[in-house]
Amino acid sequence: MNSYPELRLRPNAERLLIKGHPWVFSGAVAARHADARRGSIVDVVNDRGRFIGRGTANPGAEIAVRILTRQPDQVIDAGFIRTRVERAVELRRRSPLLHGVEALRLVHGESDGLPGLVVDDYAGWVVFQIHTAGMEAMRDWVLAALLEVVSPRGLYERSDVGTRRAEGLRNRPTGPAAGDEPPGLIEFHEGEVPLAVDIRRGQKTGFFLDQRDNRRLLASVARGRSLLNVFAYTGGFTAHARHAGAVSSLDVDLSPQALRLGRRISGGLGGGPHRSLAAEAFSCLDHLAEAGRRYGLVVLDPPSLVRKGRDLKHAMGVYTKLNRNGFRLVEDGGYLLTSSCSTRVTEEDFFQIVRRAASGARVDARIVARTHHPADHVVDPAFPEGRYLSSALVRVDRG
Ligand code: SAH
Questions:
Q1: In this structure, are residues 162 and 169 in contact, taking their beta carbons and an 8 Å threshold?
Q2: DSSP string, 224-260
Q3: Torsion of CA 81, 83, 84, 89, to 10 degrees
Q4: Residue 221 in 3-state DSSP?
Q5: How many angstroms is it from 288 CA to the middle of ligand 1?
Q6: Exposed, middle or buried: residue 354 (CB in 10 Å: 0-12, 13-18, 19+)?
Q7: CA distance 285 to 121
């Protein structure tokens, strides 16, 4: 028995969906039932009427449907969402790769079969973000599932993300959604390093959990070196490097508020001098490179520089210039830790950026580690868009 309104695809539009991709683009839709409204659950059928999958609709958006299941008899209800949340949380709780990790991503959207939902856990304080109309329509089920499965100290909503605009949604008011009111700063440890997050005013859910493994990587080469941390945010890399024995640190970021929290975190760690500079990173790097400054460690962690597909070529040029300046600032025998968080920048693109930048800076570069986001940022191989972080630790020698 089928009680969901239908949305019919154009001929041959189901190819990627059958392989497991969760998105139906608006251009693939031939017709839809009048009840297939924004946020409602629909059955996607091919041009011959064969069932392809069931998901949430958003007729006005570029992504017209986000598939939730391919089982025709699967009802989408509170129990379904609870099972998905349980699966996502269990995967993390049982993973030896995440053993003892106090702050981690519990739900990673499409990659966990929960399109439009991001959930991060900071030492028991759980922050969630709803990105899509479909997930917003299921918000009560999501809250119930998180309370039951995670048993958080408090649940805090940060559905104030720019991507909601593409879904025709305004930001939801941010604030506590259940449980206790979280403290102004939530303290947690990453390995042995004490950190803190401001989930009310911080960017995204407050902290960039996806760089966890890279912070450890940086710490492994930090002893006795000076650090320049560009796009530092609250200085997660800085705290790890200082804890591991870096002799000085300089954080550069546009956000004075993030730098202030960074000073507080790094100040508590002791060690050599720490400075921070609220500045535009590209011109600041130009300036430092022109002045002939050198550091034992340079970290580059820019925001995504690719907005649309056609920006890619331009963005590649910007990444290359950024990394060339990064290389110029590394002293002989030092390291550059560089990242791209653009989904559109492939492994090969990223390699080319590093290659061109090293050659432009006239340094001998040796990639000693290639990394991606950590185990809590799972990747569904049918959804390559969920694989976004590319990083490299590069040893720099001169002459
Ligand atoms: N490395 C950080 C996360 C960086 S997120 C960590 O490990 O926690 C990207 C950061 O870049 C944000 O803090 C943002 O404020 C900053 N940013 C964005 N554009 C910038 C620019 N043009 N110049 C300097 N900082 C910028």
A1: no
A2: T-EEEEET-TTTHHHHHHHHTT-SEEEEEES-HHHHH
A3: 120
A4: coil
A5: 18
A6: buried
A7: 34
List phi, psi (to 5°) of 245: 105, 20
Residue nearest atom 12 in ligand 1 by C-alpha distance: 233
Distance 128 CA to ligand 1 centre (A): 21
- Condensed to tens digits (0 to 9), the pLDDT of residues 247-300 reads 999 999 999 999 999 999 998 887 789 999 999 999 999 999 999 999 999 999
Report field, pTM of the whole predicted structure over 0.85? yes
Taking every pair of Cα atoms in the chain, the longest distance, rounded to a whole number of angstroms, is: 73
Residue 348 amino acid letter: E
Give the distance (Å) from ligand 1 centre to CA of residue 327.
Answer: 19
User: Which residue among the candidates 222, 259, 337, 341 is catalytic per the annotation?
Assistant: 341
pLDDT digit string, tens, across residues 326-346: 999 999 999 999 999 999 999
Give the residues surrounding ligand 1 with Cβ less than 6 Å away: 203, 208, 211, 231-234, 236-237, 253-255, 258, 280-282, 301, 303
DSSP assignment of 335-366, as one string?
Answer: EEEEEE--TTS-HHHHHHHHHHHHHHHT-EEE
